[in-house]
Amino acid sequence: MSSLLIRNVRPMGASPVDVRVQDGRIAEIGTALAAPAGAAVEEGHGALLLPGLVEGHTHLDKTMWGMDWYRNEVGTNLTDKIENERAFRHASGHDAAAQSLVLAKAFLALGTTRLRTHVDVDTQAGLRHLEGTLRTREVLREVQQIQVVAFPQSGLLGRPGTAELLDQSLAMGADVLGGLDPCAIDGDPVKSLDVLFNIAHKHQRPVDIHLHEPGAMGAFSLDLILQRTEALGMQGKVAISHGFCLGDVGAGVSERERDALLARMAKLGVVLITSAPPSRTVPPLMACRQAGVTVLGGNDGIRDTWSPYGNPDMLERAMIIGLRYNLRRDDEIEVALDTVTHSGARGCGFENYGLVPGNRADLVLVDAQTVAHAVVSRPVRKLVVAGGRVVARNGMLSADLAAL
């Protein structure tokens, strides 16, 4: 029976309260709460209280976080990046188990208690990267909820045997089935999506598809995805990562076509995941939300062969989303935070989330006056609680977790 009382904190900037945690869950929120016998007590000193942060799209298995600098000389095409990465990982023996653990711990120290990671599955590496990342999920399962996506980064149809490996991945415990550009990479969108959705339907697992395809091509693929979502009864179980085509109004997609796609996505519970990259057109955040589409945020890759950029700080990602979408008012910046908190949890299907009694006690304390202030200033995480356990102070993991 573990018990923790955190005094004098302001949930999402509201009036000061105390929070009592019992056996990993929020037991009570109120003023002047009594500390149960034997409870640990933490003084919040009026800090802003946030729920644990949520990373909706990253790639733990391929990061070089903490390693020597990688000199990036890769070509500009998507296929250049894919082929370069596969060759590098094969030649170097890149250790997905070790590196996924390093980055997951870095996320945790900065308050990310739940995350979704895509893990490469292909006929060259087989299931090695998946096995390594599943080990990380197991090591951290008490303090960080990790969803693993079996992801065909090199394509599904072009390398025979990939479909069978994805099938095995779900049987081994991958939580979600990933997909990639059925037109631009696989070249046969109907067959590609039929194979993908059949595997997902067989295992009753959600689908998360990287859709980089622009304009009319991307809209065509998205239409096919929505058709299969409805036909297979997979409402609420499909995510579109990137969805750049939804931002290509006037460049292959009309506003009417985009709005029709958004309406269908909302009806089918298909969510959208964005990293808000500055180099591509992006789906319109506010229009998506107004249409009823859940939009969540993620870093995508962090410090890997694709790009040297990225940081396992979801407050920073919320700030980047705010900048990309020109969110300036305090209420707009709160929307940016929502993409990496409540919408992030809802979009990934993480349950028992939020600052409500009965939910899992994933809590983050920062010195900030308001939610918008926290996003813009990205202060040190004074305290991170995961599953009712204090896991980090002042941006540093507890000694036992740091030693893993």
TrEMBL record:
Gene3D superfamilies: Metal-dependent hydrolases, Urease, subunit C, domain 1
A molecular function GO annotation: hydrolase activity, acting on carbon-nitrogen (but not peptide) bonds, in cyclic amidines
Limits of the Amidohydrolase domain: 45-391
Protein name: Cytosine deaminase
The organism of origin for this protein: Variovorax gossypii
